[in-house]
């Protein structure tokens, strides 16, 4: 009889802990799908800002009340396959004309003074007009980045942007701006 009471007590405790674990998993899944995402950076296309092997946290809520801005580092689905997750910097905004001349980025014919890198581009690119609700993306490692300059579909639709890269959390913590 005493064994039955002990067994019942143990089962009730297990049930209580199971509820806690269940609700924690549900909350974590909700946060991952709707608030934040994490990603492992697979390549050096964003060096020196984000290095290959860094782990980053992505704010999925960043663009609920505002649109992406030039200079934002964003995670998005690669427009040529719609599945691969990419991380690049927003360079061209909707309605702008962007081009590369003599190693520099020009927006609507004006040289961009802060192009977020010290690296001089080796290759120019022809003027491209960014369509409405789309963005032109470039990696900070301009000479080693598979970005809008080379894609079949050169622009990322706003609906394909997952969110803004908020910070690196491995191997060290650093806010991304």
In short:
The chain has one helix spanning 2-34; strands at residues 36-40, 55-59, 73-77, 85-92, 97-101, 104-107, 110-111, 125-129, 134-138, 156-157, 161-170, 174-175. It is an alpha+beta fold.
Account of the protein in words:
- By secondary structure, this protein is α+β, with helices and mostly antiparallel strands.
- It folds into 2 domains: 1-34; 38-166, Ribbon (Umud Fragment, subunit A).
- The protein has one helix spanning 2-34; strands at 36-40, 55-59, 73-77, 85-92, 97-101, 104-107, 110-111, 125-129, 134-138, 156-157, 161-170, 174-175.
- The strands form 2 sheets. Strands 1, 2, 3, 4, 9, 10, 11 and 12 form an 8-stranded antiparallel β-sheet that branches. Strands 7-6-5-8 form a 4-stranded antiparallel β-sheet, with no helix packed on it.
- It is elongated.
- The protein starts with a helix and ends with a strand.
Layout: helices, strands, pairs:
Layout: H1 2-34, E1 36-40, E2 55-59, E3 73-77, E4 85-92, E5 97-101, E6 104-107, E7 110-111, E8 125-129, E9 134-138, E10 156-157, E11 161-170, E12 174-175
């Amino acid at each position: 009889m005493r064994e039955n009471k002990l067994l019942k007590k143990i089962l009730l405790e297990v049930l209580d802990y199971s509820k806690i674990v269940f609700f924690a998993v549900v909350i974590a899944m909700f946060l991952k799908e709707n608030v934040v995402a994490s990603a492992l950076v697979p390549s050096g296309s964003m060096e020196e800002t984000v290095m290959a092997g860094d782990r980053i946290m992505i704010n999925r809520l960043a663009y609920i009340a505002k649109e992406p801005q030039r200079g934002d580092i964003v995670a998005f689905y690669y427009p040529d396959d719609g599945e691969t997750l990419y991380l690049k910097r927003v360079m061209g905004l909707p309605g702008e004309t962007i081009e590369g001349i003599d190693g520099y980025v020009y927006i609507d014919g004006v040289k961009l003074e802060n192009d977020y890198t010290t690296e001089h581009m080796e290759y120019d690119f022809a003027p491209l007009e960014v369509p409405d609700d789309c963005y032109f993306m470039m990696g900070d490692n301009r000479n080693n980045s598979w970005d809008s300059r080379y894609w079949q579909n050169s622009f990322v639709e706003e609906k394909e942007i997952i969110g803004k890269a908020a910070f690196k959390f491995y191997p060290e913590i650093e806010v991304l701006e």
